[in-house]
Amino acid sequence: MRYQRIDLNLLIALDALLAERNVTRAAERMHMTQSAMSGVLSRLRDYFEDSLLVPMGRSMQLTPRAESLIEPVRNIILQVDATLGVKPEFEPATAQRHFRVIASDYVTQVLLAEVLRRIATMAPQLSFDVRPTHSGMGQDLDQGRVDLLVTPAHLTLPEHPQAVLFEDTYHVIACQQNKQLQQGISLAQYRSMGHVVYQADMGDSPWFEQWYANQHGNTRRIEVVAHGFLLMPRFVVGTGRIATVQTRLAKQFVQAMPLRLLEPPLPTPRLTEVLQWHRFRDDDPGVRWVREQIVELAGHMPAI
What we know:
By secondary structure, the protein is α/β, with parallel strands linked by helices. It folds into 3 domains: 2-84, Orthogonal Bundle (Arc Repressor Mutant, subunit A); 98-167 and 272-299, Periplasmic binding protein-like II (D-Maltodextrin-Binding Protein, domain 2, 3-Layer(aba) Sandwich); 170-269, D-Maltodextrin-Binding Protein, domain 2 (3-Layer(aba) Sandwich). The protein has 10 helices and 14 strands. It has helices at residues 9-20, 23-30, 34-48, 64-84, 105-122, 137-142, 187-192, 207-216, 247-256, 285-299; strands at residues 2-3, 6-7, 53-56, 59-62, 98-102, 127-131, 148-152, 162-168, 170-175, 194-198, 221-226, 242-246, 259-262, 271-277. The radius of gyration is 24 Å and the shape is globular. The chain starts with a strand and ends in a 5-residue tail after the last helix.
């Protein structure tokens, strides 16, 4: 298909070049040879009457014209895919589709694992790629690289639809053998004891850690940084350490491990988890069905 002298198939290659900013990587992404991608770039330069990518040192940089094309080109591809690439009907029992979801291991543990167990019985030929949260997850959703994103409310993207899933609070977990905390935990103990905290691989801190730093500064003694919520209790059991964990998750830890659940000795914020999907996928019957399963099961979670 051509529009104003440009082969629309070239837009997919242009999208790869704009994203990778490298001919070789763009070629690998498109499963093309480097020489073929160089030929595509030459055609695109002729059409736009612009260099698009220019060498700068050992790397390639986008020209201002190329920078201005990033969002429009991505949106065109997403709109075409949403319009032509999805069947108008979705029958769960027979559908064969693959969905990409971003969610923390906390959300996966308290909600998504059960959702996917339920979906497996209703739609056995669906498959899922559940990826961990990261600093670029909003961009992944915005550029159509994932179908669904579960994120704290303060990180949602206002330009895309959303549905509130559930709320949570925070509790402190400690080893059952910790005799100092048999009657609860005081603020002085909370600040003096060793803490286990969560941090993402790229150094990003979750909602509670950000809130605590803003409200109370550096008033805790951090002994262990864990790069996964599900790892936190492993560094608490058998030690004098404590951890402040989402209540729904903390209750599961206490049921499975020799841990004690304690009320925090200070007011803590509430956490709201939200489901988002791309605005161009709002009418996608498959995405709609999967998100309905997530929202429905979240609605049956006990209140905190």
